[in-house]
Structures are given as structure tokens and as C-alpha cells.
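Changelog excerpt

This revision adds worked examples to the README so contributors can see how folded entries look when concatenated. The first example is reproduced verbatim below.
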Amino acid sequence: MRVVVLCTDLGIRIPGSKGASLHLQSIVCALARAGHSILLIAVAGSVRGGAAQPDVDAGWPDNVVLRLYPHPGRAEGAERERRKLAYTEHVARDAEQSVREFQPDVIYERLSLFGDAGTRLARVCQTRHVVEVNALLAEEETTWRGLHHSELAVERERLVLASADLRVAVSEPTAAAVRRIAPDGPTEVLPNGFEAALFASLPDQQVARRDLALPPGPLIGFAGSLRPWHGLDVAVAALGDLPGVALAVAGDGPVRAELTAQAAALEVHDRLLWLGHLPHRDMSRFLAALDVAVLPYPNLPDLGFSPLKLYEYAAAALPVVASDVGPGAEVIRALDMGVLVTPGSSSSLAAGVRSILDDRGVWRVKAQAARARALAEHTWDDRAARLASWLALTPVRTNR
């Protein structure tokens, strides 16, 4: 198949180290490894040696063509939204000739705020349009940032989803949300996955700690961007009930300063270890250094995330303590890879961590079993095979 993969989300750059960028890079590479020809249209990240490169050691497969557009620059408020609208318009117009020449069988677009470029390109090129939905972004932005043009964002999102030939959601709650605002049209569910090559072998824990300058003793950890909806404040508070246990965080983000101040106020700052952003190729080393991973999500309504990091925790044979909320909790139950606790409760999180640290032999066996299942069932190559089967069978809807 010939597939245009399109993303006009200004927060998702190629190459990039945040989860959404890794998701986009990984599904493109997995589709290419399966033999499909890909034209990737996305926002340019850093450039090394004159050409953009992904955050994977192997680089882009030969059957991937990149068309990366420069980021228009950061902005806030109404100006931020204006730039998103202008960027989508520019991509829809400028990429048309490239898409026509590529002659795609399908355009696979990641849903973006104000993003209708895929709808327009599919119409003019008379090809199928499939939309990947990680969240309803108009609702998400209104909740966490506020939108000046919320009515336009909601209506454009509805029209894109309603006209798509197929919607691919990352979780059942997200699929339900899609059907709620655009009830007509087929919808499938495809969770996130992980790069098997990065977890084919795992380093020794002591070697990993030495390489990352992490201390001896019980060590819990979190990998990912630091956003309010990740609930890291609960993990920091839990350190007060976990004497002698340190929390290592591989990532950065807007709430880091708040978390640092919280740790100082609770007098646990010496046990909160910041590693900053790590190259994705080093993620297996970081996870191998830990005894327990934490996913302390708050009790958010309609939580539809499919945490990429959760499958990486499984691949690293790392037990998890997580909030009993959302699709991630169902994965943990299915793989029997951790303990589920009350969302927002630091004492419950601490109790879950202690239960694993006090019975490491049992959890080591369970974690190895979860790793085997993850490698067999949850890699990006597995996800790409399922996606490709849907793309090949999706007909063009007559109501576009």
C-alpha cells in the first residue's frame, strides 16, 4: 500500500522525544518495515547533518519519504490558535501536489486541533481518509488550556470525524467519545505499542544505575512529560510514607517547578531525582534501573489515554503501581503486571509500592511473564499489521 501519514499538530515534531512524536515515528517505521510505502507530512523538529532524523537508532527505512514543514514559532492565547489555523491551511495547500504525485491508497491522519488538511487532501486526491484519534482535542484544550475559538474547534473536529472513512481510536473510552460527537461511520480501537528492538535485551540493574548515576536502595520511577494530568504530585507525596525509597523521573515539563517545591516542603527533596529528557534509545536502561514504576493518574472523567510508557514498562519486566482508572488499568489487569490503587491517594500509592518491594520474588516472575506477552502481542509491528489490514479493507464512504 501507499500511505500518506499526516500530522499538523504543532506540539508533535519529527524527530521528537515526547510520547506523541515517538508514536508517530514508530507507526510510520512499523508500516514501512511491513513493506508499505510512506509519505510522512509533519512538523519539523531538529535537524542533524542536513536531514531530519528520528529518535531511533536505525533511522528511517528507505521506503519512507519525509515532507517536514517548519514550526511557525511558539505563541499563547488567541495568537497560538491563529498560528495553528494558518499552519493547517498552509499544509493543505502546499502538500497537495506532493500527495497527488505520491498517488496514495489512503491518507492516515492524526487528529489535530483545527486540523482538516487530511479531509481536504483526501477529497481532492479522491482517496480514502482514516483518522487516528488519541483524544478529542477540542475538549482537551478547553479543559486544560482554554480556547478562544472553541466553537470553531469543536465543529471542525466533528466534521473531520464525521466525514472520515474510518476512525482509529487508541482506547474504548476514546472510541465511545468519537461515536458520541460523530455517531455515523466505522470506528476501530488500536492501543499504543512499543519498539521491540529497544527492549530485545535488558541491561543489569546495577550497571544501569551506575550508567545513570542513580543511587543504591529501593528506587521507583516515572518516564514521560510532566503534565498536570500525570499526577506526579501524588507520587512525590507518597515518598513521605516510603522512608528510604527514592523517586527517579525521566522527563520534563511545565509542572517540574511545582513538584520540586512540593518535595522541598515535604522534606523529601533529597529523594526526588531528576534525570531530564533521556534519548528514547536509553529508556530500557532507565527502566532496568528501577524496582517499581508508577502511573499515578488522578481520577479524571472519561480518561481515554493509551499510555505508551505502560507497554514499555511491561517490555522492561518492570512491575507497576498505577491508579485504577482508564484503559491503562485494564492493561495492567490483563498482563497481571502490577498493583492498582485509589486515584489521587498518596497513601494508597505508597501501600502499593510497599506490597511489591516486600514481595519482589513473586513480582519478578509476574513481570517476566508480562514481558513475554508484551513482546508477543503489543509491539508497534503488531499494531501496524492490524492497522494495515483495516486500511486495506476500508471503502470510501459515499457521503464525503
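The second example, added in the same revision:
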Amino acid sequence: MARRPRTTGGQGDGRRGRKPRTSGTGADADQRIIDAALEAAAENGWIATSFAEIATRAGVSLADLYAAFPSKVALINGFIEKIDREVLTGTDADAGESARDQLFDSLMRRFDALAPYRAGVAAIARDAPADPIAAVYVLPRLLRSFAWALEAAGLSSAGVVGAVRVRGVALVYANAFRIWLHDDTQDMAKTMAALDAGLRRAESMAVFCGLTRRAGRARGSPSTRA
């Protein structure tokens, strides 16, 4: 997946990370704000990042920042939604693949989409224990993301069985996420191995009812990917 160039100091009016003031509304402004927030978090930590710094980096006013994202929870949820859209846009269902393989591909696409923001995401994860209230509000949004991942793999997220599936995927993903944060392999081999193993364990424990439609491996699974 192509990665956007990251902005660094030396642009705009000469102040580090500052951009010229532009329109503060619309999808483009939302993207700039999210990028600025993740960049600032990577440099300073999530808790230490102020709204004023985010607005300055994004080139928007505080009023426009407030209108788009009135809290840090809103910023995180906006970022999650952006990643969801990228993942779902790249979804191409293949009836010849098992549901587990499709789910593996969907979750790996999520890591691909997160890759340009890894330092900022790591800062948010690192500071999360200091703000448990925020975590309570973000968790439902993450569970919704995993529900969509299941649907993209042809697995229903509805009802009691669906709720169990969603939480099972969340646990598998959380373990792979911890590996991903420190995965220094070029092709994310460690992350793929952790994710594949987690999905297999979940399948063997019957967490997912009817997870595999037929035997087979995804194109990106560890055993078939160099």
C-alpha cells in the first residue's frame, strides 16, 4: 500500500511542523488534523500533545479543530474510521478463499494502513493506561471495526454468535498488535505469524462458528509468503 509523504519541519512559516492557515472544514482538513495529531503524538506523546499544537500543525483554527474533533477521543475515533475505510475499500471478496483466510487478509490490510502512523499509534497505546476513561469510549469503536472485518470475510457479526466472534477477533488482533508495534521485519513476518497463529487457535477453540468454508491459505499467510 502506498504511503503518503510525512511533513516535517522547515515548511510553512519556518516554525517546526507549522503549516499555512487553510480551510478548516471538509475531508481534506480532517485528514490534515488526523495526520498532525499522530505526528505530534509520535514526537511528544499523546497525553502531552495539545489541541493548540495540533491546530498549528494542521494549519486550522482552534474553532475549526473543535468543530471537527472536540476531544481526543473524537480524534482517535476519526482515525479509526479513516483506517476502516481504507481497509474496506481494499476488500475484494474471493469465494474460493476460506473465511479465515479472508479475515487474515483483512486484518493484515489494517496493519498496512496503520504502518505510516506506527510511531503515533505506539504513543497513543503507550499513554492509554493513563486515561482509562478514554479507553472505555474508544473500545466500542474498535469492536465495530472488527465487526466490519468479519462481515468483509463473509462472517456475520449479528446476534450472540456474532458478538462472540467480534470479541474473539479483538483478542487475536490485540496480541498481533503488540507484536506489530515492535516488528522490524520488512514484510511484517512476525506480525503475520502471530495473527495466523491466533486465528488458528481461535478456530480450533470453536470461537468462530463455521469460520472455515474450505481448507486453504490466503495469499499473504506466513506459509506461502516469502
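Reviewer comment on example two: DSSP finds nine helices and no strands in the chain. Confidence is low (pLDDT under 50) at residues 1-16, 207-226.
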